Amino acid sequence: MGRLKDRVALVFGAGSVGPGWGNGKASAVAYAREGAIVACVDVNETAAQETVRIISGEGGKTPMSAVCDVTNEGQVKAVVDLVMGMFGRIDILHNNVGTTKMGGPPDITLEDWHRQIDINVTGAFLACRHVIPVMQAQGKGVITNISSAAGLRYTGYSYASYYAAKGAVNQFTVGIALQYAREGIRCNAILPGLMDTPLIHTQITGQYTDTAEMMARRHAASPTGKMGTGWDIANAAVFLASDEAAYINAVCLPVDGGLTARCS
Question: Which of 14, 51, 88, 120 has the greatest number of C-beta atoms within 10 Å?
Fold first, then answer.
């Protein structure tokens, strides 16, 4: 406890798309449990407020919620300005927003393609665009981008745009990390593997006969025999944001039970 005491964490995608613990929701709560002041931002106001209620109910420090479409630069800037106005600093930027769209290039529209790039990549770009100057002025800061094992490997799903988007997030992370390293800013990515989060019940179930088949097959596909959870991502995020990871930079960290290390 207390590894992030009094630090301000701005979490984009801090809500969950359904009941349970998504990666962003778990990370926001985990930051708060380690003493951070958390700004919980989501496109869904109800979801963001739920995360704030959980943090407040656990005695977390003055969390706040805000609504933001991360593809809208005006909204992203307004959120950053709001957080700065309330707390005067941003120590941790956590970019968790992402989505999938099933289909190869012949199957999806150009609009679908642009939306995948905008949500998964441009959202992180816009957040960094407005938060990096804050961190430069502070002389320090930590950025964590949530990517995917799909940014490294073919995962068996037909979502070409998602592979492309998450691959871009990985190299965007590396570029940010190395460009700003001498200014005290670290940037890493977390690459979830097969996770049991609310997201799979809204975006993946259509690839299976039913939910039971989806769960069984995804558990079986993991080297460990079971999917990970949002808390696995949250624990990695807390570590990367902490002083324990002070010399860890430009890393694309798989949190996947070994999935991306497997040849087949």
Answer: 14
162 is catalytic: yes
Which residues are 191's β-sheet partners? 254
Q: Which of 154, 157, 159, 162 is catalytic?
A: 162
Classify residue 214: in a domain, yes or no.
no
**How many CA atoms, within 13 angstroms, populate the side-chain half-sphere of residue 156?**
14
Cα 105 to Cα 73: distance, rounded to the nearest angstrom: 28
Rounded to the nearest 10 degrees, the angle between the axes of helix 160-180 and helix 110-117 is 30
Domain that holds residue 108: 8-197+229-254
Residue 59 to residue 35: CA distance in whole angstroms: 10
> pLDDT of 5-58, one tens digit each?
999 999 999 999 888 999 999 999 999 999 999 999 999 999 999 999 999 999
**Does residue 207 form part of some domain?**
no
